[in-house]
Amino acid sequence: MFTVVRNLHRAWWIVAITFLTLISAAAFRSTTGVMLVPLENEFGWSRSVTSSAVALHLLMYGLTAPFAATLIERFSMRRVVAAALLLVASGLYLTTLMTQSWHLIVLWGLFVGFGTGCLALVFGAAVANRWFVKRRGLVTGVFSAGYATGSMIFLPLLTFTIESSGWRSASITVAAFCTVLAPIVFLFLRDRPSDVGLLPYGATEEPEMGPAVPATARGAIEVLFTSMRHPAFWVLAFTFFVCGWSTNGLIGTHFIPAAHDHGMPATTAASLLAIVGIFDLIGTIGSGYLTDKISSIWLLAFFYGMRGLALLTIPVVLGPHVNPPLIFFIVFYGLDWIATVPPTVQLCREYFGLGRSGVVYGWVFAFHMIGAAIAASFAGWIRESNGDYAIAWYTAAILCLIAAAAMLLLKKIPTIAQQEAEELVAH
């Protein structure tokens, strides 16, 4: 056993550290849905106000992602990630001292939004690109599952903490976890295998990364404008916009309040979301494995189509008690929750090249979180206007079905490399 551990490639230790870091970002996301009602009860804030704070957080989280790749390139992974963890810890601790609704919007939206944006899956994609040649899809799936595991670990714990000790104790718990993790990241995380005299896992020589992105904000923006001229970018951006709308923005933020509207206790609803996390762990790692084996386009068409059909059932299955149809929805939605990430990352690599794929995915991920932000605010407004979430569920379902159809358009779109080869032949 000790021989196996001693011979384990350093890349797998980097995976473990990255996984823990992504869990910390997921820990905050676990708190938002379960904190809405306690915050509204204590301060008298409306659902639209608390939803706006979540929406701004999701927007900042997404818009930070492409620039996080630039920050990592310029200042190193360990510095950026350790600083982001401390920023998240500071923002969460300061919420325990707030007295006005704008305090929540600034702290959740700006402090924690920027911090978790630097800890987004763009960071995980950069680790997979740099440290792995083989098993990239699987490792990307493991990182995507970090969100699920964070929810699985923290959601029941934080729900119990809120009910027994108040929401401030829950905020302090997550802040403490991030504070403890920051020095571990700074001491042990490394940017590239070459920093420790190694090749990436599965490589026999230093791999060709393709054209690199300048380590500046201008470079990241130039990648955006270049990518926008390629039709594949808009397909990926739209479908990931829908992914964010139907996960973080809608279910992640509003499932617990919606269940509360139907008379379900918060602890029960939180436990159901934790089950989503458990099955997401299985589904996302499985998606990563399948991404190494079969077409990412067909995977995504299937994932979005099934998610849309599942969302159509929520108004029927959600009630005061847990019932078999609701359990079926939770298990099915869990398997599909972030299974879209590994194939989306793979398509960014295929269409835009390995060297630029991290920043391209960062911009695609920004659309994911823009969708989540709009959905969080939209669903809160629908609830306040109509007294229920029915329109929000049906809107998300229709968007998912459109996304499934949109994925099939990629089969007719050439990659950038293919376009360049065709242009050379033409000349």
Automatic annotation (TrEMBL):
Ranges for domain Major facilitator superfamily (MFS) profile: 13-415
Report keywords, A-Z: Membrane, Transmembrane, Transmembrane helix
Keyword flag Transmembrane = yes
The family database entries (InterPro entries) matched by this protein are listed as: MFS (IPR011701), MFS_dom (IPR020846), MFS_trans_sf (IPR036259), Proton-linked_MCT (IPR050327)
Quote the PROSITE patterns the UniProt record gives: MFS (PS50850)
**Membrane-spanning residues:** 12-29, 49-68, 80-99, 105-126, 138-158, 170-189, 233-256, 268-290, 297-320, 326-348, 360-379, 391-410
Q: Does the keyword Transmembrane helix apply?
A: yes
Short name of any one Pfam family annotated for the protein? MFS_1
Molecular function GO terms recorded: transmembrane transporter activity
Output this protein's name. Unannotated protein
Naturally occurring in which organism (per UniProt): freshwater metagenome
